[in-house]
Give the backbone structure.
Amino acid sequence: MLNRRQLLGAGLASTAIALPWLNPGVLWAQNAPNLGTPDLPTPGFRKMRLGAVDIIALNDGIARRPLAAEFVKNAPIDQVKALLASQNLPTDYIDVPFTAFLVVSGNQRFLMDTGFADNGGPTTGRLVANLAAAGYKPEDIDHVIISHYHGDHINGLRMKNGQLTFPKAKVHVPAPEHAFWMDDARMAAAPEGMKGAFGGVRRVFKDLPADQLVRFEPGAELAPGIRSNAAFGHTPGMSTFTVTSEGKSFIFVADLTNIPSLFARNPDWAVMFDMDAEAARQTRRRVFDQIVKDKMLAGGYHFPFPAFGTIEPAGQGFQFVPMT
Ligand SMILES: [Zn+2]
């Protein structure tokens, strides 16, 4: 029998295990009743040029959830609401967008994270339509690169009927992330609330042909000009990806923060989905400092659309400034 520490892996906080929230693929997809419906961006894609490379933000949708006290684990709800109000944001709910990125480099196309496909709620699952609007078919994707194994990032690899959404793509995954979630002993020992997340990972990866799955060690170069970086904390193996072309750099930070209006402004705040809050906090500060120092463009999976822009120091933390 594994104890809690072994279950979650070295360095993972034992508090994470108590959360029944670790199947965000299910939770994120639900819109709370009586809170209205989020406005989805139209068009749901945005293209930018980085040196010789095109980077295209592809929105999969937005989920609206009531702002609950446990959303920020280590700050009083009044402070959370005050920070939202100071930015003219609603205080009774939170809109969390889901935006993947397509990198077109020469004749190779790399998709970073996947959205939900048809496995999510009514205001998700738009990625393939937005990909089409940007001029690409699912068969055009040569590589899918996965940041981490939470449902909102991987469920779109496979449709509800089991079919692969991007049938020709090699799927690149962080080796430590894959090892963590595919460990059957760890799944067997996991509390009920966490089993769904392990099951969701198996739905996507269990039958993936071996020659389509590419495990990388975080830090490795995945293709010329595309490098992975270890960014552990939110999950045991989360990785960010840096794209460099002609001296310019873009970094996809995945879930370095959930919505930046809370967690870039207060990098020490922990969203309930951070599996090791302390490691996530340190990673957040380190990566944001680096982005500012290197003047990189940054894209985040849960950043407000177009989900890429610059990061600037603000108060005790940082501010995301979306590209206009
Ligand atoms: Zn996420």
